[in-house]
Amino acid sequence: MIRGTPTGWHYLPTLIAALCAGALPLKTLAADPAPLPIFDAHLHYNWEPVPYYSLEKVLALFRQQNVTGILATSRPNDGTRALYEAKPKGLKVVPFIRPYRVRADIQTWMDDPSIQELIETEYKRGYYVGIGEFHLSGKAAASQWVRRTVNFAVEKNLYLHAHADDEALEILFAHNSDARIIWAHTGFSTAPEKVAAYLERHRALWCELSYRQGIAIGGKLTAEWKALFERYPDRFLLGSDTWVNERWDNYGSTLSDYRSWLAQLPRDVAEKIAFRNAERLFAGRDAVSESSPPRRTTPETSGKQ
Ligand SMILES: [Zn+2]
Question: Residue 290 phi/psi, 5° resolution?
Answer without folding.
Answer: -50, 135
